[in-house]
Amino acid sequence: MKLVIFGLSVSSAWGNGHATLWRGLLRSLAARGHQITFYERDVPYYASHRDLTELAGVRLVIYPDWARVRSDAARELADADIGMVTSYCPDGIPATELVLDAVRCAAVFYDLDSPVTLEQLAAGAPVPYIGPRGLQDFDLVLSYTGGEALDALRQRLGARRVLPIYGSVDPAVHCPAPSDPRYAADLSYLGTYAADRQGAVEALFIEPARRSPERRFLLGGSQYPADFPWTDNIYFLRHVPPAAHPAFYGSSTLTLSVTRAPMARMGYCPSGRLFEAAACGVPVISDAWEGLDRFFEPGREILVAGSPDDVLGALNLPRDELRRIGRAARERVLADHTAERRAADLELALNEAFSAERSGAEAGV
To answer: Considering only CA atoms, which of 311, 210, 297 is closest in space to residue 252?
Structure first.
């Protein structure tokens, strides 16, 4: 198939969880023989932290503004099988109009932020990447989140056909790595600052650090405010480039995964960082949310925490047990959560959407 995708940045992972997910999916789709063009708008904060300029088998178009790329995008869509718009695409609404105007292709929306989208709608806030008609005109809506999010996308945004495409990881990029003294820690946490994640970060990272001054805690991520409640034993890295993620994870005894509040409330929404760390064979401790056991078996493949005491208890586990949990998590990822596995699921969903769109067009629907 020929796919034309309009999304958030794939060229920069700075404060952007979409990038590493798309890189793995795009590599896998290209390896499966699909022709792909990916459009992202050039913005200063991504341009200054760009860590990828090309992707094998993918035409990556980084454009300055919509007016200057619209004609190019229309030409690409003219013979495309799939036109896809994603959440947080800076030009989501005009890109949607262009995709829906294309005669041949099936129109697909991929919401990688479904709980955030739905929470904004509930609050009456604008959702800048979705137009006034919602999602009713798309042939297929994909959601990074399963569970009740799928029903909500149908009921509140008019999506006609909804399927989950969960997060994944490229095991060629995220795999066990030697320990690096720069990233040595008893407990590490890698994540962009988010106000709706801060309560869990304080309970599961900052408070354990306060109670264990003899231990070393390492936080990596961007956009942390000046009034963040640091402790003397929390060390900070403003940006950890994707190439360094395996060493970052592999240099800590245990790593923490924290889910944004809307996603934790809705459930069935594993973060990309969760899969990344598990693929590196590092024992992960996660906040609790509905559906977690669909992805990893608590106690055997992952540890779950609801309080600082849970985190401190995990840090006190025998090292052999922690290593066993890390190995089990990696085995689960390689079996169920690779980019290749998700690309196969995505390919099947897109083929069905294109076939349905063609049948409807031939029938005059």
So the answer is: 311
Structure token pair of residue 75: 């030409």
First to last CA, the chain: 22
Residue ranges for the chain with pLDDT beneath 70: 357-365
DSSP bridge partners of 286: 257, 304
Pick from 350, 317, 362, 31: which is nearest to 172 by CA?
31
Listed in sequence order, the residues at least 6 apart from 90 whose beta carbon sits closer than 8 Å to its beta carbon are 8, 41, 43, 129
- Contacts of 234-238 with CB under 8 Å at 24 or more apart are 234/205, 234/206, 234/209, 235/185, 237/183
Partnered with residue 59 across adjacent β-strands are 37
d(CA 220, CA 363): 54
In the prediction, which pLDDT does 207 show?
98
Number of residues assigned to the chain: 365
**11 neighbors 19 (Cβ within 8 angstroms):** yes
Partners of 140 in the beta sheet?
Answer: 108
What are the tokens at 119? 């929470």
Measured from the Cβ of residue 202, the count of other Cβ atoms closer than 10 Å reads: 14
Q: Which residues pair with 141 in a beta bridge?
A: 109, 162
pLDDT of residue 356: 77
Side chain identity at residue 305, one-letter code:
A
pLDDT at 355: 83
Residue whose C-alpha is closest to residue 221's, from 243, 190, 248, 250: 190
Using DSSP, state whether 58 is helix, strand or coil: strand
What DSSP character marks residue 205?
I
The three-class DSSP label of residue 170 is coil
Q: Strand pairing partners for 274?
A: none
Question: DSSP readout, 249-260?
Answer: HHTEEEEEE---
Q: Which of 128, 98, 107 is nearest to 3 (CA)?
A: 107
> Tokens 């060229």 — which residue?
11
